[in-house]
Design goal:
It is a single chain. The longest helix is centred in the first third of the chain and has 53 residues. The protein is rod-shaped, with a radius of gyration of 63 Å. The strands form 4 sheets. Strands 7-6-11-10-9-8 form a 6-stranded antiparallel beta sheet, sandwiched between helices. Strands 13, 15, 16, 17, 18 and 19 form a 6-stranded mixed beta sheet that branches. A 5-stranded antiparallel beta sheet has the order 2-1-5-4-3, sandwiched between helices. The chain starts with 5 loop residues before the first helix and ends in an 8-residue tail after the last strand. The relative contact order is 0.05. By secondary structure, it is of the alpha+beta class. The protein folds into 5 domains: 153 residues, Beta-Lactamase (2-Layer Sandwich), CATH 3.30.450; 39 residues; 96 residues, Beta-Lactamase (2-Layer Sandwich), CATH 3.30.450; 77 residues, Helix Hairpins, CATH 1.10.287; 175 residues, Histidine kinase-like ATPase, C-terminal domain (Heat Shock Protein 90, 2-Layer Sandwich), CATH 3.30.565. One of its GO terms (molecular function) is ATP binding.
């Protein structure tokens, strides 16, 4: 289908209208001329007939000779179409020769003999006739209409030429008018196309006061409003993008088929493909799509905390997740909006506070029990020793070992009570600038006999430059002693315990999130990081790594609980005391372990700065 532009839409109807008008006027003129020519021909025929009848009436036809004389006279008229005849003979025949329409037979056949005077007309003929009573002659004047049409065309050829010239001039005028009318409309259409292509700086420049000018002014006002609205929309869009980009909470929009329609930067950062739910092992995105299916079936909203893990040796991550249906303006659900935040730090803090509260409660309980138990134990030990001196007379007496066993158990119980008191009793740390190397060396000298007895190797390289922390010296030594002793107790023959001192920048792993797997080399090493890095860091990390039996994953969350132990002879207070002392000094402890591989304990101390205590 041909698509016309505005100029042709204006031009073609005008040209058709003008052509029809001129054509109609020409036809009317031609028809009027034709009718006038016919009327003139009738008058001519009537005059010819009247002239012949007047002549016949003025003469007396007595015999045949008179008739011939009159006939000769009439033949001299040379009137086209004159035909005079009677019942016996044709006296004058001026009918056109060779015409198939006007023939003597046709003329005679059209005349009504009952009329003295008459007129006959059809589509091809026009005959005027009269009958002379004196001579018995019938005078007829006939004419062929098609001959009149040719005469009419020849007569009106100048009128036709004027009509054609007028038509051409009218067409040219129409073209000029159509171009003048369509030019501003076409200009307006071009500007609209530019605007639809995104150019909102378009302005119509028209110096007109008519309707087109008003339209241009309205168009410019509309463009100005569009520019303002577009600017506001862009600002709102940019603001929304800034908000989504600044959010630490991940926001993800998912369609009905589970495709991700949009997500902010936090969502991209949090959606690690390796993250899987700890309980089911399903990827986090699969869990979200499952929630989408549930929302499509039962619209509503849900809130849930997922426990996730990227790998067996990685820390648990807790994602607080919320979901709500995505509703369009028509009220139909087109997908779901998910928001999720990593609350792992908050969870760890909550668990730490829970552990502190539990330890405080246990400490209060242990303090009361220790005072109530310690005094009877002292009396029992004294009494057993007195009984031993009285009843055991010789070294071979079989009762001696029994008394010794009782005293040993009393001493063990007393040691447990002492540990309970140490755990329960508040220790305000004496924080000062502390050189870490002497403390490590002193602690290693204390545990060396136990390591040698178990054939566990201790390797220590002195620190190249002083490494100073802010801590309590006695408590730091107690912490290192407990941690290394636990590592020795968990190690087998030819195993190694690694002790590394480093800043966060120099660590080969992120404390608390690295692998707890051992190296399997069967030795204990002490490594110290570059002192320049330590000086630049705000924290110092002491990492103790063994290659022992490790701790089962189900027991990791309980290792700092009071009275929890995996050793038959342990009290379960060692790591609880260590954690409490670290917390009191503003330090932190992290433990990573894998059963059958080993355990890594990271002690995080604040580094001593120039303005620190000392």
């Amino acid at each position: 289908m041909i698509k016309l532009d505005i100029e042709n839409k204006i031009l073609i109807p005008f040209m058709i209208l003008i052509a029809l008008s001129i054509g109609v006027l020409g036809l009317i003129s031609y028809w009027n001329g034709y009718r006038l020519l016919l009327d003139h021909q009738r008058q001519q025929q009537m005059m010819t007939m009247m002239e012949v009848m007047y002549h016949l009436e003025s003469v007396e036809l007595k015999d045949e000779a008179d008739k011939r004389e009159v006939a000769g006279y009439l033949a001299g008229y040379h009137r086209q179409g004159l035909y005079v005849f009677d019942e016996a003979e044709v006296w004058v025949d001026h009918l056109p020769k060779g015409s198939g329409t006007i023939t003597p037979m046709a003329v005679v056949g059209k005349i009504n003999r009952d009329l003295i005077r008459g007129f006959y007309e059809d589509d091809g003929l026009m005959i005027t006739y009269a009958r002379d009573a004196g001579s018995g002659w019938t005078v007829a004047v006939a004419g062929e209409k098609k001959l009149f049409a040719g005469e009419l065309v020849d007569a009106q050829k100048y009128s036709i030429l004027v009509a054609i010239i007028s038509l051409i001039l009218s067409m040219q005028a129409t073209i000029l008018i159509a171009h003048h009318l369509s030019r501003p409309v076409r200009y307006l259409a071009e500007q609209c196309n530019e605007m639809s292509a995104g150019d909102l700086e378009t302005q119509l420049e028209m110096d007109r006061t008519d309707e087109i000018g008003m339209l241009a002014e309205s168009f410019n006002q509309m463009i100005h409003r569009l520019q303002e609205n577009a600017r506001k929309l862009l600002e709102a869009k940019q603001f929304n993008e800034d908000v989504l980009r600044s959010l630490t909470t991940g926001v993800l929009v998912m369609g009905q088929e589970g495709t991700v329609l949009n997500q902010n930067e936090a969502a991209v950062r949090l959606l690690d493909p390796a993250l899987k739910e700890l309980e089911s092992g399903k990827p986090f995105m699969a869990l979200l799509r499952a929630k989408l299916t549930g929302l499509l079936e039962t619209p509503g909203r849900f809130d849930q905390v997922y426990v996730l893990q990227a790998g067996p040796s990685d820390d648990k991550r807790y994602y607080a997740t919320s979901a709500a249906p995505l509703i369009n303006s028509g009220g139909d659900m087109t997908g779901a909006i998910f928001s999720f935040a990593d609350i792992s730090e908050r969870k760890r803090l909550e668990m730490r506070m829970e552990r502190v509260n539990r330890m405080a409660y246990v400490g209060q309980l242990a303090s009361g029990l220790a005072h109530e138990i310690r005094n009877p134990l002292a009396g029992m030990k004294t009494s057993i020793q007195v009984l031993k001196r009285r009843l055991v007379c010789s070294e071979d007496d079989r009762n001696g070992p029994l008394f010794d066993n009782v005293v040993h158990e009393i001493d063990r119980m007393n040691k447990l009570v002492s540990e309970l008191l140490d755990f329960a009793k508040p220790h305000k740390p004496d924080l000062r600038r502390l050189s870490l190397e002497p403390v490590i060396e002193r602690t290693l000298s204390l545990v060396a006999p136990a390591a040698e007895a178990r054939r566990v190797r201790l390797v220590f390289e002195p620190v190249g430059a002083p490494v100073e922390i802010i801590a309590d010296e006695n408590q730091t030594e107690q912490i290192l002693l407990n941690v290394i002793t636990n590592a020795i107790n968990a190690s087998s023959e030819e195993d190694t315990i690694k002790l590394r001192v480093m800043s966060h920048q120099g660590m080969g792993m992120d404390p608390g999130s690295g692998s707890g797997a051992g190296t399997g080399t069967g030795k204990v090493e002490v490594e110290v990081a570059d002192s320049g890095r330590i000086a630049e860091s705000a924290r110092v990390y002491v990492v103790v790594e063994d290659e022992g039996s490790g701790i089962a994953a189900s027991d990791l969350e309980r290792v700092f609980d009071p009275f929890f132990t995996t050793h038959a002879t342990g009290t379960g207070l060692g790591l609880s005391v260590v954690q409490k002392l670290m917390t009191d000094m503003g330090a932190e402890i992290e433990l990573i372990s894998e059963a059958g591989v080993g355990t890594t304990v990271t002690l995080n101390f604040p580094v001593a700065q120039k303005e620190a205590l000392g």
